[in-house]
Hints:
By secondary structure, this protein is mainly alpha-helical. The protein contains 7 helices and no strands.
Amino acid sequence: MKLSEFNEYIQTMAALGAIVALIAVGYEIRQSNRIASQQAVSASWTNWIDTTVAEIESGISTTLAKSMTNPDDLALEEKIDLNSFLQAFVYKYHHDYEVLYMDDNPVLVARTLEEVVMDAPIIFGSRFSRAWLQENRRWMVPEIIEAIDRSLKDIPVGSDLEYYRRIDTLAATL
């Protein structure tokens, strides 16, 4: 084997080694991204569970029910509680959207927006929550507000109470 042939052989092997190394690095990056996505989803679920437990413990359900059935009698303290509840709801979705968007996970970003669409008629069904939404939309992520608006487009005020009535009706048939 001549020296030039040996040199070509070495260069070819080095090039193949570099290709294999790049493939390994790409696989490692893909694995790291997958782990980051799984951690983001896990953190999201933890946030939702913790917030739900905090809502139950806070007694916000009494104020929510009053906002559905007797909104004209809401006290200022109750309006402040509703403000915090609605902010927390929107913040949770902002968190999920931003983390998944930065993680470049379009499937989960789209799923997050669809969850907003499904939840909005229940969360923003009362007059107070609709007014709150109008007053606070300036700070919301445009995609989140667009999903909420799309969801509420043809949904009348009272959709939150209607949700519970539908469940009652269904429960009565079981």
